[in-house]
Write a structure and sequence with these properties.
Radius of gyration of chain A: 24 Å
Strand content of chain A: 5-15%
Number of domains of chain A: 2
Distance between the termini of chain B: 132 Å
Largest interface: B-C, 46 and 55 residues
Distance between the termini of chain A: 45 Å
Shape of chain A: elongated
Strand content of chain B: 5-15%
Number of strands of chain B: 4
Strand order of the largest sheet of chain B: 2-4-3
Oligomer: heterotrimer
Number of helices of chain A: 9
Order of helices and strands of chain B: HHHHHHEHHEHEE
CATH superfamily of the largest domain in chain A: Winged helix-like DNA-binding domain superfamily/Winged helix DNA-binding domain
Helix content of chain B: 40-55%
Radius of gyration of chain B: 53 Å
CATH topology of the largest domain in chain A: Arc Repressor Mutant, subunit A
Largest sheet of chain B: 3 strands, antiparallel
Order of helices and strands of chain A: HHEHHEEHEHHEEHH
Structural class of chain B: mainly alpha
Structural class of chain A: alpha+beta
Number of strands of chain A: 6
Shape of chain B: rod-shaped
Helix content of chain A: 25-40%
């Protein structure tokens, strides 16, 4: 906070352009995040708050304030939202939304996309050893848990899939880096796209001739 | 371990529960998501780390599985059979001493890759389970139940420049003063114009005068303008004839058209 | 808040049937009010919270906690809900300003008023040659570019319109007299300066001899 006495002269002159005090900015962030069911980005916060506000700073104070409360300030991707504390879920039967039961194939496909993103359909099939049905991908797209990523710079320029911030929000993740067990899987080399021994017929590869090339410049 | 031993192992060396499980594998073949899924299930019976699994043993188990499935006359999808063929090939590679002249990957390399695939699939299944076990929105934690909708206030600000204003005013003045000429009608002489000018002139037309004499100044040289003026003047003279103000005559085809004021008509102007 | 130390003995003995500490109850009320799609009554709160809870008391603490915050706990009928603090409601509005060009009819009407003020609606219509819609005049009045002038001392005492200082401001004029005259319009190429093809008698009539009269009864 500024020293008001020192600056009083200055403040008088520029009061029109002076940002509100930080406590006030914190209230504003609180109000905006409370009002929205969707996560709100820092940019959106700053856009909605008066000129000169620092939403990011106000947010750090707000997060601290709500630590241990019944609702919490959570980060979802690049955005922020209030969510009820997980330990109080037992109170919420009334609010519980029946989610469509996902098939085992859909859950596995989702996990593969989350852990391997950006990933092509052929890569998913290589990992699961079966072809991925259109319906499975469509369902995940429809739920807005996955979306199309950039095309791979490999022959055929196949589309890739990545998870969305909606996915992060649903599973209470700040980012895809926070996926459970991600580090362990990576260090175990299980997220590598290890090409099959050259010339070998691939297990699970039924008809994708271009499959071996898919992993050439995978990241 | 010989193949026979493995077969024995698979058939009899397991507990009742394991045999039931093996049975279930065959009965539920359609429930499997492909050969890799079957291999993963079979590998569990080895009860070792997937990295140390015996691929040879696994290949034998799978081949036995496919045999039994065929014996039960289950329709086996092509990829199960492709896998069987591939595993048979792999098994032979693993059992035979390596041929130094043979190019391509060794049996060990192929086996290692298969082991990797199985381990990776298992890892993804575990990860999926962990993911689904997380607190989920709408089940374990919740967003604001009464979100306050952002009101969108749309304000329209109208704008105009001095030039707009001047153009607007000029437009009105132009309309006022040159109404007949508002459009680009340089070379159009209207019948109304011709009528107006003839009305002022026919008072002085006591004798037969050529129609061409009534053409307005500045409309006689340019052929386009002359044609327009002639047509308009002729149409206007017909109007005047109809009104009983003038008489028209033409001595011959293409001869000059002449007109004069009709006797008895005092309304020249 | 309760004194936990005083009660620890008691809590230990009856923990199975003991209500959660008041701080915990407050968290529960907070989460329920936050997540509920409708305002929640005390009875509902008690029904949803573990046995022995005192929702009314927890609510009192919660209300106090949110005093002066960006959101407040408010009573709606017999039920309770979170609402944005009144002084922050401006954050819930997104104002978009759209600049649109004034319609041709409005510009022409405005020009006539500026050049001929004070002018009656009938006079405007005469000059424009078309009737002036109510909407056009209302729009100009609303923009505060025109206002009502004195009534004309003619039969029916019609109201007149004049331009406002707002108008002069917008167009950078000191007075309506500074509007460019017909001569200037002509030299600016805005007025057709071609002599009409015939009827030479018309030429010269549109020079600005009559311009001075435009402002004859200007006030």
């Amino acid at each position: 906070m500024m020293d008001d006495n020192d600056m009083s002269d200055h403040v008088e002159k520029t009061s029109l352009f002076e940002a509100p005090p930080m406590a006030e900015q914190e209230r504003m962030v609180e109000a905006i995040l409370f009002a929205s069911a969707e996560p709100v980005t820092i940019k959106e916060l700053n856009d909605r708050m008066p000129h000169g506000c620092n939403a990011a700073e106000a947010l750090t104070y707000l997060r601290k304030r709500y630590e241990g409360r019944g609702v919490r300030v959570v980060k979802i991707g690049e955005a922020w939202a209030f969510r009820t504390a997980g330990d109080l879920s037992f109170l919420m039967q009334k609010e519980t939304v029946e989610t469509r039961k996902l098939s085992r194939a859909a859950i596995e496909t989702l996990a593969i996309i989350a852990y391997h993103q950006p990933v092509t359909r052929a890569e998913i099939e290589e990992i699961r050893g079966v072809s991925v049905s259109r319906g499975t991908v469509d369902q995940l797209l429809e739920m807005e848990w996955i979306r199309f990523g950039r095309r791979k710079m490999t022959p055929g320029r196949p589309v890739t899939f990545v998870v969305t911030s909606e996915f992060l929000d649903h599973f209470g993740l700040e980012s895809a880096r926070d996926l459970p067990g991600l580090k362990e899987l990576r260090s175990a080399g299980l997220l590598d796209s290890r090409p099959p021994p050259s010339g070998a017929e691939l297990v699970g590869q039924d008809d994708d001739e271009d499959q071996p090339e898919l992993f050439e410049d995978d990241d | 371990m010989s193949e026979a031993e493995a077969q024995l192992d698979f058939d009899q060396g397991q507990s009742v529960a394991d045999r039931l499980a093996a049975e279930a594998l065959i009965i539920d073949v359609d429930g499997f998501e492909g050969p890799l899924d079957v291999l993963l299930s079979l590998s569990r019976t080895q009860k070792v780390d997937l990295r140390r699994i015996s691929i040879l043993h696994l290949a034998q188990q799978y081949l036995a599985f496919v045999e039994r499935a065929k014996a039960l006359r289950l329709e086996l999808a092509a990829d199960y059979l492709v896998m069987a063929a591939w595993l048979a090939f792999l098994k032979s590679r693993l059992l035979l001493p390596p041929d130094p002249t043979d190019e391509g990957p060794s049996g060990e390399e192929l086996a290692a890759h298969l082991a990797f695939q199985l381990e990776r699939l298992q890892a993804m299944r575990d990860a999926a389970a962990k993911l689904m076990a997380r607190d989920q929105r709408g089940r374990d934690f919740f967003p604001r139940g009464i979100p306050e909708t952002m009101e969108r206030v749309r304000k329209v600000k109208y704008n105009a420049t001095l030039l707009d204003l001047m153009q607007g005013y000029a437009r009105i003045r132009t309309r006022d003063e040159f109404r007949p000429f508002v459009m680009d009608r340089d070379n159009v002489y209207t019948m109304e114009q011709a009528l107006a000018s003839m009305r002022g002139l026919i008072g002085f037309a006591g004798d037969w005068t050529s129609l061409s004499a009534y053409l307005p100044l500045g409309w006689t040289n340019d052929p386009v303008r002359r044609r327009a003026a002639t047509a308009a003047t002729f149409a206007a003279s017909l109007e005047l004839v109809k009104a009983g103000k003038v008489e028209l005559r033409q001595s011959d085809t293409f001869a000059p058209i002449e007109l004069r004021r009709k006797e008895g008509s005092d309304d020249g102007r």
